[in-house]
Design goal:
Keywords: GTPase activation
Organism: Hirondellea gigas
Protein name: TBC1 domain family member 16-like
Pfam family, one: RabGAP-TBC
GO molecular function, one term: GTPase activator activity
Shape: flat
Largest sheet: none
Number of helices: 8
Strand content: under 5%
Radius of gyration: 26 Å
Number of domains: 3
Length: 229
Amino acid sequence: VFEDWNFLVPPRDNNSILERQRRERLKRSAAAAAAVLQDGTTELGEEMTEAASLDGGGDTECAAAFQQFSVCRPSVEASELHPAEGSVRELDAEDWLTYFSQEGVIEDDLSLRRRIFLGGLEPQLRSSVWPFLLRCYSFSSNFADRETLTQQNRSLYKQLTERREKLEGEEWEEFWRSVQCTVEKDVVRTDRSNPCFAGHDNPNLAKMKNILLNFALYRPDIGYTQGMS
């Protein structure tokens, strides 16, 4: 749900046929949007701007299409929450270690996943926990298994980087045209409100770019699609 989705369409030539057609299209779009938003997941905010000035305040029905709306977060009643909501503590580093056996196997992954689902986890644990949740590591793997897999993946990533940097001729031109030029445009538009990508010289932007480029090289059948960043 978009918290601050605001739009305001300025008036143009009221006397032209194209303008009237444009109004009708916007009116239908506004009606369709209102119908979707009335399903209970969101609610329309108060009307911020009247567009009666379009033609001297005459066509109020048409002017409704030019009003400004805000889409607000839905309110969730306590009765709609999971019965255990709020009763489970956030997973911290101390509790995280208790899920491992002596060999490093997570024996009760159901309990762990339930704990995280209901209580969340401390941000500093994400790099340790997410590989399990995303199936990069099997819950049944031990310390040695994960160390081996990590080294294999690092070696593969290094090989991909070297291979990409050695592209030349038609192969390089095709990769640039179909992947890299789009990636470089999108990476700089990554959400800068996120501390991980804030600032103009943030090194994490370069890391993001390299990950996307290497993935496109590794899986050319998928490549890169706008929004992956």
